[in-house]
Amino acid sequence: MAEAVRPDADVVIENARQVLTCAGPAPLRGASQRLVSALAGAVVAGRNGRIVFAGPAGEADRAFRARGDARIVDARQGTVLPGFVDAHTHVVFAGDRAGELSRRLAGETYEAIGAAGGGIVETVRATRAASEDELFTLARGRLDDMLLAGTTTCEAKSGYGLDLPSELKMLRVIARLNSGHPVDVSPTFLGAHEIPLEHRETRARYIESIVDDMIPAVAASGLAEWCDVFCERGVFTPDEARAILETGRRYGLRPRIHADELGPSGGWRVAAELGARSADHLVFVDGRGARGLAAAGVVATLLPSAPLFLKLGRFAPARTLIDAGVAVALGTDVNPGGGHSPAMPFAMTLACFAMQMTLEEAIVAATVNAAYALDRQASIGSLEPGKLLDALIIAGQPADLVRIGARTIRTVVKRGRVVVEDFQLTPEARDTAWKRDAGPAGAVIA
Ligand SMILES: [Zn+2]
Measured in angstroms, how far is the CA atom of residue 364 from the centroid of ligand 1? Predict the structure, then answer.
């Protein structure tokens, strides 16, 4: 009888020193945020892009039957982890801000550059002028870098268009990336990223246009899952953020928010009041904010590369958040202004060495909790039967993740396909017809 129900497997990852499954009820918070569920010498097997088994090698024979033509991935005594989930990026943009970087390195602040007409506004100019194909090609290269660093799913925002046609153009690019690149992309509408130059004297009218025109059109396009606001001093106030996010929610775009990054904006309170899925950055949140977020069940998505590259001189209080019971997730914040690292291992290293998280907490934050921050915990984030077979193999131990600059992530498997092998993209990373076959626009299969 047992013989008859053994599933076939078309891919098997074997010969691992250990497998960190990160299994458990998502999100993992408080003391549970350290539970990576390490299994020595375990095997992971999949069929049609989904995991059929993740467990001890001794149980593998009884649990599945490898097809004759199954792809055998030799972990060579390395460590197998779930693919990383990057819960916050601005990966679609044109132009570069190298000049601004020089000014910031010479001492000017991000806010001063923005007030003088640089910063986001400069990227808006270039992104409006770029064609959809140009934006796609630029962003695809950035997703390649993220994939090589182990990211198999990410979030991506609009927000460099700041008018309806340009915002929709960015969201169409995100949809093309989702189907045309191995990395699955969760799309966010961020029309409230900045007040565009043409509305600097008429900011109320820009907010009206977001609420009355952009959100209904974006919702009708079906191109966004989330609505986000940059709630920060000099950008959008908590009241404006609340109005925009409430409108988005009425149209089916679920709220997330940039909160308390450059100063105590009070964005965390908006997140808690609205029950946002995630409040992001939180560099200036305090103990009261941490307790408020915990009570509301909001995930804290921390992006420590941002305060590093913006030279804020401080980082989000990860320990306060974890101790208060907030589930902490991580992202890279890839963007042209201060998001210079595409690598989740770099964000994890900063989580450990600048935010006092343990390596296990950082791994959970980069996998199952980040999946939860995107409401994809049912299909990704851990190595458990039924989820997508998204995994990476470290050529060594988990601690090797902090050896920034050394080659660490040797293999990446996306939906059961080997897309990075021996530290390089494979042909299957370039031709993603296999992904389109798996569902419309690379959508997560229910
Ligand atoms: Zn951001």
Answer: 21
